[in-house]
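Chapter review: from sequence to fold.
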Amino acid sequence: MRVLHFYKTYIPDPPGGIAQVINQLARGTAQHGHAVDVLSLSRDTFEKSIELDNHTAHRARLDFEVASTGFSFSVMGKFAALARTADVIHYHFPWPFLDVVHFATRVSKPTVLTYHSDILRQRTLLKLYRPLMMRFLGSVDRIVATSPNYLATSDVLDKFRDKTDVIPIGIDRSTYPEPSAELLAFWRRRFGDRFFLFVGVLRYYKGLHILLDAIQGTGLPVVIVGSGPVEQELRKHAARLNLANVHFLGLISDEDKVALIKLCFAFVFPSHLRSEAFGVSLLEGAMFGKPMISSEIGTGTTFVNIHGETGIVVPPDDADAFRRAMIFLAENPADARRMGENAERRYERLFRAEQMVSRHIDLYYRLLTDPPRDQDSRLRSIASR
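The token string follows.
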């Protein structure tokens, strides 16, 4: 079987959470003996196709962006060529240009779409895009939601429940480097082992301004790993609050990241908007047995972090509640240790990459065994919604 994944970004360009998920799926599917291609856009197309973990990453030139949506003139031909040899095409949503490519190339292969997130920020443009979006979602054969929480709270997914499967995101611990004793000692000398850790791209919906407000006056040490569009704004905010207890590290190596996760006392994840659909880095904290603090935003974050069991869940955009949660863990290390142990057990039970990969392969085979409806049937179905 040959599977084609299609999304706007992928490794080796700087990966986000969706690119990480695609990589886990691609490498895992390839390990089962299947051929996997991943097509994405890139500003750098010097090396157009590369081999990664027994699968092939293809890149088309990113020509321009509008409202965070990448467009490419050359990707149409590349997608059509790769789709001809694929048995199953796996889309990753949201990316409005994806819909255009799908219809323009008249795809006739079985299609799966992972619905990573609602479109929330571009409300005005969404009104214009919605008819195309609904037609596109109606035309694919199966939709995958990454948590039961998101399926239960998404107005869009609610319209397609009859063809939606819930397959949680999984990650493979063996793909994470083991930090050396010297590296662990380096970071321990710098921060000790009682610090709170955030890992992720610094975006508007990550709620890091809430975290900074929460630690004002507490003395609780916080390490922030990652870079992104709001980094300078956050640094200025920390300076205004005179926070000597927060440390911005920017981008670091995977080995350094793992060392810090292993050493940290707890994992903080203050995302306060539904744009945070799952939180792969939150899952990394669980995988390494760390208690977590997150916010209830009706998405997969509260599927990973169960209040009172694996950590603490607080109301969104509530710095006081976040502060109280951090102080509770700091003052109750036995409870923190118990929650961390529960988090690791929950990861082992629900969020291993092998489980995610196996369920996707089963889904692919079901589509190949049970031929999808013809395009006219799909369009009549969505027209009736």
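Two observations follow directly from the output. The chain has two domains: 2-172+353-383, 175-350. Residues 153 and 298 are 6 Å apart (CA to CA).
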